[in-house]
Design a protein that fits this description.
The structure is a homodimer. By secondary structure, chain A is mainly alpha-helical. In chain A, 71% of the residues lie in helices and 0% in strands. The first copy, chain A, contains ten helices and no strands. In chain A, α5 crosses α7. At the A-B interface, α7, α9 and α10 of A face α6, α8 and α9 of B. Chains A, B: This is TetR/AcrR family transcriptional regulator. Chains A, B: InterPro entries: Homeodomain-like_sf, HTH-type_TetR-like_transc_reg, HTH_TetR, Tet_transcr_reg_TetR-rel_C_sf, TetR_C. Chains A, B: It comes from Kitasatospora phosalacinea. Chains A, B: Keywords: DNA-binding, Transcription, Transcription regulation.
Chain lengths: 205, 205
């Protein structure tokens, strides 16, 4: 993973073209420590008991350092989960559309199990309540995931392998709809069997 | 619609076997006025500006009358939306599985447009934050809707009309997943064209 991939949209370094200075390198280390701490504490304590204070203490920084880059715990976690998704969901291109789609969906489902699933639920709720956070949630996490799956499905579509009634965009909605509905409503398992079933549903029989 | 169908799980009358008395009839009228007021105000002002005080004033009752039956505005609205869904989504049985499924999905999508869509979003968020409300949300609204669509899909399954990789339960998840994902994440339209596409996806080609 490159340094760039670990940075979020709020990284102040993105706004300048200055070369890397020692202070900037320390900032980047601090950011990474905070993101790692947020993810560790989520695993240990769950979303409800996660606090900016706890994240800062675990990362060995002050609260004000966290607030320098993020408005609150939801945004720290949003960036931590985005990094997590990028790291754990590959975008295969083997030429076998069914195998590629199945691998992507199975990795996506596996990356959404607890504790990540609890955090995803909490962030989706926050996105409904706070429209400004909702926009950041879509831009930072939902849309990049849509684009990744969309790339894969556009390839299948170009090879005439997509189910004939679907477009890549509606197929993306069906796939992430199933994921989110199980997370938010039924809490039924997101497993490999479901990834296989979804793959068959989205591709031409 | 029967009197029974308008009652929610919190109706104190369900706990007794006494015959209908005038006081009970007045209670029932009061309940209905409160549910109608909640729905009207949702339409006029949206979920965020809806208050128990406003609902009571519109219904011509006191706040304490609302609190006698519901813990707060989310639960009043949950019952109002459940009545709304039951009223506007028929469960056709014409023998034509595709036509029946299309009609059900189109009516479901149409019943989830604003202002109902805003309220559904708010209640789904509340369900993530308050687990006790989450259980009531599933029992009162989500599960009865799942059962209605499940009945229709079980019929198609028995006639070997369901897509071969799906069970009625996973087909229900795909359908409601698409609905909720569009409501919560993309806000893309829920229209008749989408109902047709979903019908083709769930049934055997």
């Amino acid at each position: 993973m490159t340094e760039q991939a670990n940075r979020g949209p709020a990284d102040p370094a993105d706004e300048t073209s200055t070369p890397v200075r020692p202070g900037r390198r320390r900032s980047e280390e601090s950011r990474r420590a905070i993101l790692a701490a947020a993810y560790e504490l989520l695993d240990e304590a769950g979303y409800a008991r996660l606090t900016v204070e706890g994240i800062a203490a675990r990362a060995g920084t002050g609260k004000q350092t966290v607030y320098r880059w993020w408005p609150g715990k939801a945004d720290v976690l949003l960036e931590a989960l985005t990094v997590h998704a990028r790291r754990h969901v590959p975008l295969p291109d083997t030429g076998d559309h069914a195998a590629d789609l199945h691998a992507f969906l199975a990795a996506t489902f596996a990356a959404a199990t607890p504790p990540t699933g609890d955090a995803l639920r909490a962030l989706m709720a926050e996105a409904q309540i706070d429209p400004a956070f909702g926009a950041r949630f879509r831009d930072t996490l939902l849309n990049p995931r849509r684009e990744a799956l969309g790339t894969l499905l556009a390839r299948a579509h170009a090879a005439d392998a997509l189910a004939p009634q679907l477009t890549p965009a509606t197929a993306v909605d069906l796939a992430f709809g199933l994921l989110w509905y199980r997370l938010l409503a039924t809490r039924e398992p997101l497993d490999d069997r479901l990834a296989a079933l979804l793959t068959r549903t989205l591709l031409r029989a």
